Amino acid sequence: MKLDFDGEKYRLASDQQKAWGRVLLSGLRLKGDEKILDLGCGDGVLTAELAQLVPDGLVLGIDASASMIRTSRNDHVRPNVRFERLDINAIDFNAEFGLVFSNATLHWIKDHKKLLRNIFRSLKEHGVARFQFAGDGNCSNLVRILKEVISQERYAACFRTFDWPWYMPAVDEYRAMLDEVPFAEKKVWGENADKYFESPEAMTKWIDQPSLVPFLACVAGEDRQRFRDAVVERMISETMQQDGTCFEMFRRINVLARK
Q1: According to the model, what pLDDT value does residue 56 have?
Q2: Dihedral-angle region of residue 137 (phi above 0 means left; psi in -120 to 50 means alpha; beta otherwise)
Q3: Is 146 exposed, middle or buried (0-12, 13-18, 19+ CB in 10 A)?
Q4: Where are the alpha helices (DSSP H) in 41-139?
Q5: pLDDT at 1
Q6: 8 A C-beta contact, residue 251 and residue 20
């Protein structure tokens, strides 16, 4: 299934993803002349911030979504940043980058054994991989509700051949997988990043973009809006707190590896 996310909607609904990304940025130790690969650059905000950290270097942001790349190119024109439409599964670089970076993206990639080998090959000697993505238990409310709604009689036929879009492993599982790749140094750790959305509207933006995109692609006509509304209404109803916020569990996997 080919998906195309909405770069403009994502720009307005991704404050949490950007907050996580800025934590990653704050921990980087850069000289300023590195060549950096940003896997899943989204709307390009963090890619541009990476570029500010390497004024004598270059940052390449890639994303499979044409809309994301269009938004990135429109919003972030800098001499040392480039954006290319490229599927992460198709990267084939050889010792080109001092840093491979990714924030809140790689749970969309199903084959991480291939991914880790490709990242390793992309890095120069002593290059660093630093990324964070969703792990086991992430978005447990949304996952549960989605599974319940797609199993309803009205929608079951639409999802008969549906391939679940996310890979969210346990920390120990991912650590064992990383151990198969010959990085000189490697570290994997989990993080609890649970969030209270300030309002139902804020949660709805996050659900709509990008979480629901692969599911809505399976539903046609009037059922598409009905499906979307069923998921959103249940999420708000079941996660609303007394103060009007909406709660969701966010469990992340962090990786730091050096070639």
Answers
A1: 98
A2: left
A3: buried
A4: 45-53, 66-75, 112-122
A5: 54
A6: no
The letter for the amino acid at 105 is T
Which DSSP helix (H) or strand (E) runs through 228?
A: helix 222-239
> Is the distance from CB of 258 to CB of 184 less than 8 angstroms?
yes
Place of tokens 């770069």: 7
Give the integer Cα–Cα distance in Å for 59 and 10.
Answer: 21
Both tokens assigned to 110? 């199903």
Q: pLDDT digits over 110-162, tens only?
A: 999 999 999 999 999 999 999 999 999 999 999 999 999 999 999 999 999 99
Residue 210 has pLDDT above 60, yes or no: yes
d(CA 243, CA 80): 45
User: Is the Cβ–Cβ distance between 110 and 219 less than 8 Å?
Assistant: no
Cα–Cα distance for residue pair 82/122, rounded to 1 Å:
17
* Distance separating alpha carbons of residues 38 and 97, to the nearest angstrom: 10
122 contacts 97 by C-beta, under 8 angstroms: yes
Token pair, residue 10, equals 């994502």
Residue 141 contacts residue 258 (beta carbons within 8 Å): no
CB 256 within 8 A of CB 128: yes
> How many angstroms separate the CA atoms of 104 and 41, rounded?
10
Amino acid making up residue 172: D
- 216-248 confidence digits (pLDDT tens): 999 999 999 999 999 999 999 999 999 999 999
What global pTM score does this model have?
0.95
CA separation for the pair 232, 238 (Å, rounded): 10
Query: What's the distance, CA 88 to chain centroid?
Result: 11
Q: What Rg, from alpha-carbon coordinates, does the chain have?
A: 19
